User: What shape does this take?
Amino acid sequence: METSISLEPKPADAGGRKKVLIASIVFMGLGHILYLKQYLKGFFLATVEAVFIAFLPRITKALINLQTLGEPKPHLPIRLRDNSIFMLIDGVVVVAAVAVFIATYIISVRDAVTEYDQSRGRTVGIRESINKAFPVLGLAPSIGLIIFFVVVPLVFSACVAFTNYSSPAHIPPNNTVDWVGFDNFRALFGGSKIWTQALGRVALWTLIWGALATATCYFGGMLMAVILKESKIRIAPIFRTIFILPYAIPSVISMLVWQNLLNATFGTINRTLRALGIISVSIPWLGDPTMAKFTAVMINLWAGFPYFMLLISGSMSAIPQDIYEAAEIDGAGKFQVFSKIVFPIVLYQTAPLIIMSFTHNVNNFGAIFFLTGGGPVVPDTTVTSAGGTDILVTWIYNLTVNLNQYHYASVLAVMIFMVLAPIAIFNLQRTRSFREGEL
Amino acid sequence: MRGKARVNLNTVIVLVFLAICSIGVLYPIVYVVSAAFTPGSSIALDIVPFGSGVTLDHFRYLFKNTNYPIWFRNTFIIAISTSISTVVLASLGAYVFSRFRFTLKKSLMTALLILQIFPSFIGMVAIYVILLRVGGLNTLWGLVLVYVAGNIPYNTWLVKSYIDTIPRSLDEAAIIDGASHFRVYWQIVMPVARPILTFLAIASFTGPWMDFIFPKLVLRSADKQTLALGLFSFVTDKKNQFTVFAAGSLLVAIPFVIFFIATQKLLIESLGASTVKE
Assistant: This one.
């Protein structure tokens, strides 16, 4: 948005413009101080560069450490040995800081030139400076937080995928960690039979789980929304209130309760079925790999259909009433109205949220971890820690927390990225604001 | 006559179907309520709810023998701080993204979108070390920083797409009248964007209540535990106090349930609105 209004636009003075450009490139903020009389901004930018130069030796050292990840020094006490993981994180943080510095530099040079074109040496007050800096000040805290608590950790994870950071031989501070190139990827994709099989099994189940969990909840929710809207039952609001309950109860609680109810020996469900004489042998709800997968999807349906019920109710109530009336006049039956009008509209409107729900389910840690704990145990579990219902994220958790196999966990994280990032970008490209180019 | 009979039959079928579904939905809820009032600490619940009498012992135990009030207080502090910080930062960022043109804007927006698909615990080793370095381990604010950073990418998008629908003529008029950008943000855009901000405040307030991984990673000492950690400890740690767990869960779930039922109209509207706008 154009905000500064110059009263007398003069033709740009090419010589002065060049001077500002060169001064800004030579030292950050110099152009603002010398030619634009924007002292506050100029001194701030100059300070940034001064600090950067003062830290240059440390920055260089951190970058060298990032490359070597330290040397093993077994003769030193543990406290004094090189800690590869600190070096790796510091290196990533420094790379991020350098990137921010370069971006600031570019922005400051561009800003100096634009300011010169607009203000032509007019003194700018502090208030106006602050006002002009609003976009930067408004975004800075968000971007800072995201860089240090989201981007750096993710980049760190991606880096670990190329190291041997793992128990027992490569855990700092006792030992150092080294770069190993694509060794971990090779091991997981064919090199090590047991790990490759486990990965194939878990990755396949993750995709099936994501698709089934999303589809069951979507159609379950749609069924309820349609029945509650179409049936002329007077107590429909009571049913709707009941159906919202699973959405309102925190999932850790409901999953742990289900885990108790579904226990094969003492669980209430099996004991009730036995008492009623329906079964004579306990059903292994969570004890058999196939059965446990089925149970997980069903319990996820219990927890997840209310969201889509609410969503689709909202979407259906936004359909104009006259469409229904026109269809009725044309002699369309209820089923026709639904399949030819309501369903396409709802599907079109909720499509982005279906995709988001799929990515959510692929990452749905709680639905698996608190219900099945990843179990039951399958043949390779003792080595890989991946149980019969583990999806990629719960497996990552096990590998990190229980086995300390950080290198393999990071390879899995990279894989999640490769599957989900294209989906997210595809989703973005179909949004209206993106298509209309006003992002 | 015939038509009417068929309608009635349909209604009966629908009613039976809804009743069966309701039983399925209510089944675990009834059992957890019953467990909370059941005497003893057996993990095997009664087949008939409330079959072995009613007691308030587990609630007394929670408040006398455990740190339940402290867990509750810690969780509340974390949730309210996360909620306020998320609303302030996401709305500021969203306003800037919606109303200004600047270098790297499109790249930043795309980066936010890609970042939001990751569960934040993928980087938990790094987060642990970073918090260790800045002294944020075993502190509530360290946890809040992690939550807020994780909330910003998606919610900045959410609020931005809402602010995009507010006519620019409103804030342009104010700027011609000499209002600063901050005033436009604070006094014009924020009040109009209140519905989405309310939704965001609620969503980011409820999130931390039951998160498990990060409190376990960040919080160590007994006086810094949260509800999720405390409740989970009742059913693991070889304690198997399922009835106490049920009582504690009930106290957390009740406010949530009342709140959701009271705001279900608002929920349907805001969820519906978010689809129509894409």
Notes: Residues 101 and 260 of chain B are 39 Å apart (CA to CA). Chain B is about 75% helix and 0% strand. Chain B has two domains: 1-65+241-262, 67-225.
